[in-house]
C-alpha cells in the first residue's frame, strides 16, 4: 500500500511537494499496523525524506514498486542513490518502470540504455533487490491519467509529469508496447552482461522471494 500519491497526505510527503517534513505521527502508526497485518509499505510516489524514514521505521522490508534511479533520469518520481543504498541494505525492493516519463529520452529510450541502467543499479543495491514494475496502464483512455493527477484535490488542472501540450498517456517505447514484451527486457539484460540466473531473479524471482519473505510469518 502506498503512503502517498505525489501530494502530501496524512501519512507522508509526495514527490511533487516542495517541502518534505517526513513521515507524520499517523504515518508511523500506519506503518506499524501494516507491519503487523502483513501489508507491504510502498513509497513509489513519495519524497526523499519520507521514503528514507519509512525504510527506517518499518520493521519489514519496504518496496518502491515502480520508479527508476535519478542518476539515469532526474524525474521527480525517480529515486536517489541514497534511497537505492537504503533499499539494498534493508533487503527492500525496487521495481523498474517503463513509463516514458520515468525513462531517459522518454518514448525514444533504447532497450540498451534501460538495461544498462538496471546493471548500474544492481551494483548499488544488489541483484537480489531489483525487479520490474512497469507502471503500464494498458488500453486505458487519457481520462484515466487525468483523474489520477487531479482527482478532487485541485480546481486547477494538474498535468503531473506531462504538460498542457502533452497531457495524455505518452507513447510506450517500441521495445515495450504491452505485457507481451517482457521477453525483450530479458534479452536486453543478457546483452548487457547479466547471467541467465540473474535475469531470472530480475524478471520475477526476486519479487516472488520478497513476497514470500514478507508474508511467511503471517
Can you characterise this structure?
The chain has 218 residues and is mainly alpha-helical. The protein has one domain (25-215): TIM Barrel (Alpha-Beta Barrel). It is 39% helix and 4% strand. It is built from seven helices and three strands; from the N terminus they run ααβαβαβααα. The protein has helices spanning 25-37, 48-57, 81-89, 111-125, 142-150, 182-191, 196-215, and strands at 63-64, 93-96, 130-132. A three-stranded parallel β-sheet has the order 1-2-3. The longest helix is centred in the last third of the chain and has 20 residues, at 196-215.
| Total of helices | 7
SS-based class: mainly alpha
Helix content: 25-40%
How many strand segments?
A: 3
Strand order of the largest sheet: 1-2-3
**Mean of residue pLDDT values:** 92
Unreliable runs, pLDDT <50, ≥5 residues?
Answer: none
Q: Ends: how far apart?
A: 17 Å
| Shape-level CATH architecture | Alpha-Beta Barrel
| Strand residue percentage | under 5%
CATH topology: TIM Barrel
SSE string:
HHEHEHEHHH
Q: How does the overall form come out from the CA principal axes?
A: globular
Q: Largest sheet, described in full?
A: 3 strands, parallel
Provide a brief overview of the structure.
The chain has 218 residues and is mainly alpha-helical.
Which structural traits does this protein have?
218 residues, mainly alpha, TIM Barrel, globular
Summarize the SSE layout with pairings:
Elements: H1 25-37, H2 48-57, E1 63-64, H3 81-89, E2 93-96, H4 111-125, E3 130-132, H5 142-150, H6 182-191, H7 196-215
Helix pairs in contact: 2-3, 4-6, 6-7
Amino acid at each position: 500500500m502506498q503512503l502517498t500519491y505525489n501530494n502530501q497526505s496524512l501519512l507522508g510527503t509526495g514527490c511533487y511537494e516542495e517541502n518534505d517534513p517526513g513521515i507524520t505521527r499517523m504515518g508511523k502508526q500506519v506503518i506499524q499496523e501494516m507491519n503487523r497485518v502483513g501489508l507491504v509499505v510502498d513509497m513509489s510516489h513519495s519524497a526523499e525524506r519520507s521514503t528514507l524514514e519509512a525504510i527506517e521505521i518499518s520493521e519489514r522490508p519496504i518496496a518502491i514498486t515502480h520508479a527508476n534511479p535519478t542518476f539515469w533520469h532526474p524525474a521527480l518520481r525517480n529515486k536517489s542513490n541514497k534511497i537505492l543504498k537504503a533499499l539494498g541494505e534493508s533487503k527492500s525492493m525496487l521495481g523498474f518502470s517503463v513509463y516514458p516519463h520515468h525513462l531517459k529520452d522518454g518514448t525514444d529510450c533504447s532497450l540498451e540504455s534501460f538495461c544498462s541502467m538496471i546493471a548500474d543499479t544492481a551494483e548499488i543495491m544488489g541483484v537480489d533487490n531489483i525487479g520490474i514494475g512497469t507502471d503500464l496502464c494498458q488500453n486505458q483512455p487519457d481520462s484515466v491519467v487525468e483523474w489520477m493527477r487531479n482527482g478532487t484535490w485541485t480546481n486547477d488542472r494538474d498535468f503531473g509529469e506531462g504538460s498542457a501540450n502533452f497531457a495524455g498517456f505518452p507513447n510506450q517505447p517500441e521495445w515495450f508496447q504491452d505485457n507481451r514484451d517482457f521477453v525483450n527486457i530479458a534479452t536486453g539484460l543478457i546483452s548487457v552482461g547479466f547471467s541467465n540466473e540473474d535475469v531470472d531473479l530480475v524478471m520475477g524471482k526476486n519479487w516472488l522471494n520478497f513476497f514470500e519473505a514478507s508474508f511467511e510469518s503471517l
